Amino acid sequence: MLVDFAEIERARSGDDAAFGRVVAAYRKRVLGTIARLIGQPDDVEDVGQEVFVRVYYSLRRLRTPEVFEPWLYRMTVNAAYDYLRRRKRRAERRMSDLSDQQMITADASLGMVQDVEERHRTGVRERLDELLTGVSDEDRILLLLKEVEGLSLKELEEVYHVNANALKVRLFRARQRVLKAFAAIKRTDVTKPV
Amino acid sequence: MKDLEKELDELFRAWREAVPGPDASAQFMPGMWEKIEARRTLVFRVRHLARAFLGATAVLCTLMAGVFLLEANRPGPVPTESYLDSLAYAHANESMLDAMHVEAVEGRR
Q1: Which of A82, A86, A124, A138 could disulfide-pair with B18, CB 3.0 to 4.6 Å?
Q2: ipTM value greater than 0.90
Q3: Residue A175 domain boundaries
Q4: How near does any CA of chain A get to the CA of B61, in Å?
């Protein structure tokens, strides 16, 4: 825990200063998780604020301060889902508005702005994103929470309110799908003419 | 397959490093409090509207109940004729028809 239970209890009873301290303690972790889940650096802060606004209005419903961290993860995951759903709708609208030439121009101008390090990051991100296209948003987030955020099954159980066996099955299937996609990409890389 | 699993784990690790947690800007906290205030105002307005709607519904229900009770308690028309008079009036047409029927049978014979 990054803050003590008493601080969460104070925030829960309506102490805004205590709430501010809780946000200050957790915001970096929350923003990091969001950045990895949504993959859009420009929108991370906005989604992070949304998470804490929801936390502020739901804190009274928290059963006990001991479960604050999984509960916060749950809020973060839900806000990320909502963002991804909105983005999907927006993207569908925008893509239909752009011509092919406009798309090429947009891609090219984006490429010029990025520096080498950013390109490397984008490369890794795109590679993983490509692998994760075969799984649903829900499974993608579950997989990232486990493999990237490093949450244990017990913690995931508290986040999802689903029993560990069901999670294990879902995780196994999602990982198998990603592995299959990985193997396919590797095969393509090998057979690709140089 | 084992190698592939290892490579995938490595990719996940590289990805975590490639997407580090960003630091919040100076505008993060003020922006968050602004959103909290905006939602509080919205919640207050919705609650206010809901209360007004509830009040109006309660007044309307009371008025309708009053009208209904007044109508239910209003005395009906007072009977001025006796029970026998009412019976005779109700069966007046029947006896006339009976009389016509009898006459018609007698005429055929």
Answers
A1: A124
A2: no
A3: 133-194
A4: 34
